[in-house]
Amino acid sequence: MAESTHKFGVHSDYGRLREAVVGILDDFTLPPFDPALVHYNAELREALEATGGKPLRVKAAFPERYEKTQEQLEAVVAVYDERGVEVHRPRPYSEEEKEYLGFLQGGHALLYPADPVYVLGNHFLEINIRRAYRRKEVFPLRDAVMPLIAHDPEARHAAMPPAQPFTPSGGGPGPYLEGGDIMIYGKDIIVGESDIASNRAGTDWLKRYLEPYGYQVHPMPMRGSFLHALGVMCLLREGLLMAYLPPLVDGLPEPVKDWEVIELTEQEARTFATVGVSLDEKTYMLPAGHNRVIDELDRRGVEPVPVPADQIGFWGGSIRCATLPVARG
Q1: Based on the structure, what is the number of domains in the chain?
Q2: pTM (predicted TM-score)
Q3: In whole angstroms, how large is the CA radius of gyration of the chain?
Q4: Residue 10 domain-assigned (yes or no)
């Protein structure tokens, strides 16, 4: 892979997106159902529960959904191409990588690269997902990102201490930190915390790592079955955000507590209205079908770019999960 043509780094959730890694399906294989997968929809949960304790090969079990998911991923890439965003894709897994941590939880995926690694400022962070089958994603993603930072003396590469092995996959002390829980507003970093994704040990690690670089980390405790903070809130531009507020235990975190809020319904949050991607502070790509949200964005001078993403969303994430920004601003 060629080196980056843009300055590596991400300093907000809404600065102009210049370069990103977008996920692939590859040999998409999900683990047997366990409590850590409570965020999955009923159809997918039923399929996982019926495997007899074996991983589920998605292409064989859901061939039509697999193909449509592939089509929607490529449609997202096409939007990036049209908007001048340079796109990279991870390589497929090696056979050895597919087996990594299989004793804890079988399966392997590369659909949502923004969860197991994260670019925060000029730091490339390899972090810890609570679901063990996804921790191996760091290997192909590391190979995708390292050439982009190789010639940048200011870029940093750090990896969290490995999460303590624990079965079932939903338990254990971690530390757990997932990209879908991280939001960037300059030097203020918001981290969602829950019982099914990032925990306080993960937040504490990030705080200790980042504070010497001038960052302030703000925990945002959450309740309920929303997997990530991004599932209930997103920052659209300075002073404007969208949110479904009931899951936020303490309300909006300090850095954004006075921002204007486009309040969402639970249904809008469940269908990933907040899990789109800001192409810049005036443009937001979101899953198609959110007509009321589109009108709210229009009224505030934010151009909505709706893209069909229901199949990408079937597997528990959406456009932003499938997109790892590596250069913004």
Answers
A1: 1
A2: 0.95
A3: 18
A4: no
